[in-house]
Amino acid sequence: MQLNEADPKGLVRESYNIEGITEAECKSIFIDWALSLKTTDSAGALQALLDHYAPGRAAHPMSAVLEAALTAPPEPKRRGGRIGRMGG
Question: What is the pLDDT of residues 19-31, one digit of tens each?
Answer without folding.
Answer: 999 999 999 999 9
